[in-house]
């Protein structure tokens, strides 16, 4: 796939994009919904190149670590600090999120307890099998891409009767969040880059309301530099011709209908509820919780943790919420790069590898070479 | 939001468990979400699960497109 | 009350702040203030120390014993000294298999022989079960000073040479723990860098072994001391296939991964070709490459910049915390 990073092809695409952007009545402002796109744009140095071509990219709410409210992070910290002989398994980024109770990385686990960083939820399940006397809780955060894997793991635990396994769910759905952002009307964007791997599960249909009801173009993109630029070009073409739709620019890895097997599994294990997002508030049917049949695998009631709907309080002064909604850029927060830095973050956006603040801090200060 | 890579299936058990090759490294993966996948197929792997089959024809077309763009601007 | 977190020892900014805010004010003197890998003392002697903790103790390409020798040897080499003598101190956990200790000692003996250093003093302590983790080792090293790094002589046009691939040690240890369901034929690059010593006589300006914090942190710390920026070209940086794969799969940036047998060398512009040939002629330096240059045209003084493979440009920051695989 190194062709998709070929500087010559990239320059050519950027040239195309620049020409198309100039033809539009207003400078285009495109939201990349997905944090992995934010990361790729900065890592490859594309954001400043796109800015030169006249396209402003805005980060969206696509970082599960960031939009998981403080209350759930605090519940995880409480759990591993107070319960003995328990393993809290989770993905790496989740351990650094600061809360009023510190972070998982500064937490001191109760005797016999530990925090285990995993790549796959099945690693947590494996630990539950190996140590039947230990409670294993998978702190599972994710969007539609990750949810089927978590659903599969819970269902497998049920089939094996693994009573010592449970999940602390932080499961989020992308389309309801997009709807909430658009209906709030706080941001002016001219189009969207949709997340390729979420779309591999849900397909293209769930975004169609954006074109239909809001008249905004969009394209589903892969994660190589070339993929993202193809999608940007498509959004500009749609804007120019006045024919907004959901373009598929990642057809090598996804079908228009998504992955029905994965969706059926999600449906079987989880049900939607009105979930509270950090920064976005409570959004109708935007989170998933266990269905009655699988309620025994929900760590929340099992360990008497805080109610799932509660958002909890952010650290004072943190404006992650506004960043997540695209209302301000990270640089617009007065604490950015001053009181809030990667070593001592005020909020999750400065923690997650996909957090807009961390990415802007690490990669954002790039300047053009002086001639 | 979702880091994932394309990898080639190198072992596939009836249980859906198996391994895939990614650039010469072997990664354990669960293929239950892509029941049509067969040994030797390419899949997209995220969090230890294959979430999608790679379409070889589409992949070739994308590569071709970029090869042409790379070559065209070389002139 | 503030407590020591793992991050303090991860080689990132927290550790640098700790050294600058606590260690230097307490002990500062002209020798320590250099914060060099090894200190040059009166009488042509260079002196360094390092402690070794690693889980697991044995991994493909090395073990804690081999690390304890080569780590200290390399600190002397990159400071401009020929390694001569080592001290060797063990802190052992009660209940450790004696066979494991014997195996580590055999490995130390072999590594010391290969690096041409003699173990001349030592110590052994045992702590109660659970108060330590199997084996901790501290070694101190004494060497003969042959040159001093010359940061002030570094000028635009001087070249940044990396002596081989990045990240192999980090990855070998991660995979040896059996985490993440990943396996590959990666091996730790743990090795002595003695073959770099002749470069000092030929005019090398500066060297640093690439350990904790990785290449980005090492070069960032150099750039901070220069009046010029440093530009690294992403596609010139040699990476082994297993590291390339793991970095994409787990989302870990190889520029921040640790090595135990690689160094960056700043070569005067006119000698870069000669240096590269010399390094490449050694089996441990075959993959060496010029990966960047001290700049006068791009960037601002003190900056470390990366020219990405796609043609973009971005600033590189030092490591801020432990590497964690990311998934979402």
Write the layout of secondary structure elements.
The complex is a heterotrimer of chains A (about 375), B (about 80) and C (about 325).
Chain A lengths: L6 H17 L5 E6 H9 L2 H7 L3 E7 L1 H4 L2 H13 L3 E5 L23 E4 L3 H10 L4 E8 L4 H14 L4 E8 L1 H11 L6 E5 H7 L5 H7 L3 E4 L3 H17 L4 E3 L11 H10 E8 L3 E10 L8 H4 L17 H5 L31 H8 L8
Parallel strand pairs in A: 1-2, 1-7, 3-4, 3-5, 5-6, 7-8, 8-9
Antiparallel strand pairs in A: 6-11, 10-11
Helix pairs in contact in A: 1-11, 2-15, 7-12
Chain B lengths: L4 E8 L4 E6 L2 E6 L11 E5 L2 E5 L2 H17 L3
Antiparallel strand pairs in B: 1-2, 1-4, 2-3, 4-5
Chain C lengths: L12 H15 L11 E3 L3 E8 L5 E2 L2 E2 H16 L1 E13 L4 H18 L2 E10 L7 E11 L13 E4 L5 H9 L5 E2 L13 H5 L4 E4 L4 H11 L5 E4 L7 H10 L12 E5 L4 H9 L8 E6 L9 E4 L5 E3 L13
Parallel strand pairs in C: 5-6, 11-14
Antiparallel strand pairs in C: 1-2, 2-7, 3-4, 5-7, 8-12, 8-13, 10-12, 11-13, 14-15
Helix pairs in contact in C: 2-3
Helix fraction of chain A, binned, reads 25-40%
Report how far the terminal alpha carbons of chain C are from each other: 33 Å
Q: Give a short account of the largest sheet of chain A.
A: 6 strands, mixed
Query: Which geometry of chain A do the CA atoms define?
Result: globular
Mean pLDDT of chain C comes to: 92
Q: What is the annotated CATH architecture of the largest domain in chain C?
A: Alpha-Beta Complex
Q: Which sequence of strands runs across the widest sheet of chain A?
A: 4-3-5-6-11-10
Shape of chain C, please? globular
CA-based gyration radius of chain A: 21 Å
**CATH homologous superfamily of the largest domain in chain C, by name?**
PurM-like C-terminal domain
Provide the CATH topology of the largest domain in chain A.
Rossmann fold
The major sheet of chain C is characterized as: 7 strands, mixed
Which class of secondary structure composition applies to the elements of chain C?
alpha+beta
Q: How many structural domains in the coordinates of chain C?
A: 2
């Amino acid at each position: 796939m190194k062709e998709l990073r070929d500087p010559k092809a990239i320059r050519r695409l950027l040239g195309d994009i620049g020409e198309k952007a100039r033809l539009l009545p207003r400078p285009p402002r495109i939201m990349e919904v997905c944090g992995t796109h934010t990361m790729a744009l900065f890592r490859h140095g594309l954001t400043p190149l796109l800015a030169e071509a006249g396209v402003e990219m805005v980060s969206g709410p696509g970082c599960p670590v960031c939009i998981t409210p403080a209350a759930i992070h605090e519940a995880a910290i409480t759990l591993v600090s107070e319960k003995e002989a328990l393993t809290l398994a989770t993905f790496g980024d989740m351990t650094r999120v600061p809360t009023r109770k510190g972070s998982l990385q500064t937490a001191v686990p109760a005797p016999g307890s530990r925090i285990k960083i995993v790549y796959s939820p099945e690693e947590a399940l494996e630990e539950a099998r190996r140590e039947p006397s230990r409670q294993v809780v998978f702190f599972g955060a994710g969007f539609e891409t990750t949810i089927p894997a978590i659903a599969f793991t819970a269902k497998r635990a049920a089939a094996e009767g693994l009573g010592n396994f449970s999940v602390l769910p932080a499961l989020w759905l992308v389309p309801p969040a997009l709807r909430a952002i658009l209906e709030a009307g706080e941001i002016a964007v001219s189009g969207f880059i949709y997340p390729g791997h979420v779309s591999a599960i849900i397909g293209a249909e769930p975004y169609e309301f954006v074109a239909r009801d809001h008249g905004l173009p969009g394209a589903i993109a892969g994660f190589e530099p070339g993929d993202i630029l193809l999608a940007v070009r498509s959004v500009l073409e749609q804007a120019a011709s006045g024919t907004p739709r959901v373009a598929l620019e990642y057809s090598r890895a996804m079908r228009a209908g998504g992955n029905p097997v994965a969706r059926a599994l999600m449906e079987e294990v989880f049900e939607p509820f009105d979930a509270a997002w950090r920064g976005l508030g409570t959004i109708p049917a935007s989170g998933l919780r266990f269905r009655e049949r699988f309620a025994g695998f929900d760590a929340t009631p099992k360990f008497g943790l805080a109610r799932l709907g509660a958002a909890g309080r952010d650290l004072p002064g943190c404006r992650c919420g506004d960043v997540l909604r695209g209302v301000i850029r990270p640089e617009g927060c007065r604490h950015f790069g001053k009181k809030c830095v990667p070593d001592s973050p005020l909020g999750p956006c400065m923690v997650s590898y996909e957090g807009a603040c961390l990415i802007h801090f690490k990669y954002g200060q790039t300047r053009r070479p002086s001639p | 939001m979702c880091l994932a890579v394309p990898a080639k299936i190198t072992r596939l058990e009836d249980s859906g468990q198996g391994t895939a090759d990614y650039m010469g490294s072997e990664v354990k993966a669960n293929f239950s979400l892509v029941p049509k996948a067969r040994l030797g197929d390419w899949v997209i792997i995220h969090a230890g699960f294959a979430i999608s089959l790679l379409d070889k024809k589409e992949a070739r077309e994308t590569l071709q497109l970029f090869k042409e763009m790379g070559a065209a601007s070389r002139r | 009350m503030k407590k020591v977190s793992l991050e303090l020892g991860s080689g990132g900014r927290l550790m640098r702040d700790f050294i600058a805010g606590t260690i230097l004010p307490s002990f500062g003197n002209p020798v320590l203030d250099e914060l060099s890998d090894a200190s040059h003392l009166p009488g042509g002697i260079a002196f360094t120390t390092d402690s070794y903790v690693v889980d697991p103790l044995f991994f493909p390409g090395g073990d804690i014993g081999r690390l304890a020798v080569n780590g200290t040897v390399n600190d002397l080499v990159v400071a401009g000294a020929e390694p001569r003598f080592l001290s060797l101190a063990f802190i052992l956990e009660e209940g450790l298999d004696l066979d494991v200790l014997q195996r580590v000692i055999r490995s130390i003996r072999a590594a010391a022989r290969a690096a041409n250093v003699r173990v001349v003093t030592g110590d052994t302590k045992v702590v109660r079960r659970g108060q330590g983790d199997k084996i901790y080792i501290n070694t101190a090293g004494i060497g003969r000073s042959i040159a001093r790094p010359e940061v002030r002589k570094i000028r635009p046009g001087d070249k940044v040479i990396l002596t081989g691939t990045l990240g192999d040690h980090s990855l070998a240890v991660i995979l040896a723990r059996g985490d993440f369901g990943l396996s590959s034929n990666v091996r730790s690059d743990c090795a002595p860098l003695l073959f770099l010593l002749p470069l000092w006589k030929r005019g090398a300006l500066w060297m640093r072994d690439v350990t904790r914090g990785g290449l980005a942190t090492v070069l960032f710390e150099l750039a901070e001391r220069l009046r010029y920026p440093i530009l690294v070209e992403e596609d010139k940086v040699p990476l082994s296939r297993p590291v390339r794969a793991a970095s994409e799969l787990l989302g870990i940036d190889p520029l921040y991964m640790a090595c135990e047998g690689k160094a960056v060398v700043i070569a005067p512009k006119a000698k870069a070709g000669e240096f590269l040939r010399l390094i490449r002629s050694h089996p441990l330096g075959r993959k060496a490459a010029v990966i960047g240059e001290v700049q006068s045209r791009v960037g601002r003084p003190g900056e470390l910049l990366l020219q990405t493979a796609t043609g973009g440009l971005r600033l590189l920051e030092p490591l801020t915390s432990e590497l964690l695989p990311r998934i979402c």
